[in-house]
Amino acid sequence: MTSPEDVEAMNTQPTPAPSIPQDHRVSLAVDIGGSFTDVVLMTGAHYHSVKVPTTPHAPEEGVMQGVREILAVTATPFDKLDLFILGTTLATNALIERKGARTALLTTAGFRDSLEIGTESRFAQYDIFLEKPTPLVERRLRLGIPERVNAQGQVLVPLDEQAVVDLVPVLRAEQIESLAICFLHSYVNPAHERRAAEILKEYLPDLWITLSSEVCPEIREYERASTTCANAYVQPSVARALLSLRAGVQAAGMRCPFYLMTSSGAIATLEQGARHPVRLIESGPAGGAILAQQIAEQCGFRRALSFDMGGTTAKICFVDDYRPQLSRSFEFDRKYRFMKGSGLPIRIPVIEMVEIGAGGGSIARIDHLDRIQVGPESAVSDPGPACFGRGGKHPTVTDANCVLGLLDPRRFASGKVHLEPQLAHDAVVRDLGRLMGDEATPGAHAITEIVAENMANAARVHAVELGKAVQDYSMIAFGGAAPLHAARLASKLGIRHVVIPHAASVGSAIGFLWAPVAYQAVRSQHQRLQAMDTDAINTLLHGMHEEALAAVQEAAPTGSRLTVERVAYARYIGQGHEIPIELPEGLLDSDSGEAIRERFEAHYRELYGMAVPNVGLEVMTWTVTVSTVPDTRAGTGGVSAASKASASRLRTMIDTSGEIRPIEVPEYEREDLSPGTRLTGPALVAEDQTTTVIPHTFSAWTDSFGCLHLEHHANLS
After folding, report:
1. Which CATH class is domain 4-95+239-280?
2. Closest C-alpha to 448, from 368, 372, 337
3. Residue 29 exposed, middle or buried by CB count within 10 Å (0-12, 13-18, 19+)
4. Is the pTM of this model over 0.90?
5. Model confidence over 624-655: pLDDT tens digits?
6. Which fold would CATH assign to domain 100-235?
7. Domain 518-628 has CATH 3.90.1520
């Protein structure tokens, strides 16, 4: 069994990163999704992909199955791989399903209820039945210790070391596997946290310990404690699974470094992921945002909307000026689907996106008000949608698409899943027939229309929250289900241009291969701009730069170009929240305050339409991010001449644009579409792992990068 000592031993011996020209590197990326595990092998600019059903009981089994399959197809030995990158749902599933370690919290005496109290805000002000998220650590396992440090880091009450020792029999009796330590103001002075961990390690060497001063050294007690508990809760299972998977691929002959995708869209070492698995929670969706960023840059879209729809969920992210929207925090396990504050907060660097329970496996049902609802419950991969023939009884989005004739039963998921349309038909009639009649097609149409409206509504709300006009964006759609629904979603949002990348069904895994190696160091240190201690800040920033640089050098190929971004989170004095401001280059001096103020006011006006005169500024938190500069295939993706393609066959599908009726439409093979090929809807473009629907209101063309562009040529409805 893997112990904390095993992880610590790994940390002292980081795997050297390869120094191989990009055009010759053989890279493997794996994205473990809720329904399918995607595997992509890239050699230079050429890649191959496979999909295999995810094995929820043991995700590493699905990974090994997919890896062996793609290596066999490409005749690539394990020992010829130069790079392995994994995006995993291990941490996400452990949190959502509440299947993490038995965890306790050690905190300052009198503050154990901070997890319960939260910020005292009510996310649904007038809901008398308000259901708050349940903390990961139950109250009796939240243990207080006499100690106290003030906001300046001065010790007011020394750590009671004997009280720490007295907890040893308690932790043993409660069979605690993992411990979160979060003392008041430890982000300024972590000495008490570190000493408490040293004492407990002497008596309990197998205990996993997470320090808040390491995983989240920032102000805001509730968010810091919540993040620390989340890391402690998932660390044992995630670390063991990662090490088990690495041992498996190494036993099979793989000798290359093993890296992980993080929630911020950057690559980290397996050792870093084992220390801070909380940073992996949104790793899969983050890879999709990186793919959208690269496609936007190739196509010259300064404003792009990333739309990732797989088997379990759909994710939407705005990409402005070729950079995904970033955030310092997010919530998980929301009690109310789209309501901020109804989940448990986690403060880590993360690509900001809205996640909707609307994937191919989302289950449709009739609720108590006789309305058809779709999701967020999902059939996932086991048993899967009814049409999989594995025991699923309820209709899903995939079943609806099967009934509408949009899926080829013989080649779904590259032929690994043979669809049974009759089972889909029966499930729709059985569960929705009371409202929609004995015909399956009206029910199937209702499912696809409702799921499209759910996604459109979530995108509209997200756009309003960020102050963006969604109709000004181009959509980049990927994931196994996105090409089926992208055009309809774009029509609802008023978007006229949709791009379906090559191998869109495994888009997130491809994004892993384009992601930079990066690390963000963060510290909270309060400074008022008018009396800023520049020496103290320069010392702080230098230490953070060294920390981030060392972390990146563990994983980055030798000789990589690096960029450094320094950000201050500032606010008007007395406000409750900050906005990020990029700091001037070089050492800060007496003139830097004015430059920071000018940047703050410009950004504040951009966000809120005005600046507040005659009010001082204060900085609460500082970040330093060191990142490699990833290679990007430059160009516009345009073509010089138009050509026509021949349809491989005619397919019967259900037309839902007016009267619901069967029609015959041409079906084209994606691999037969050369650059410049132009198509007119209605039509289908088929490939082994997905199908693109081109409605009658759209035309399509292919570019030199293999992307399929859909353009609206009629009035939007």
Report:
1. alpha beta
2. 372
3. buried
4. no
5. 999 988 765 444 444 444 456 666 778 888 87
6. Dna Topoisomerase Vi A Subunit; Chain: A, domain 2 (3.40.1360)
7. no
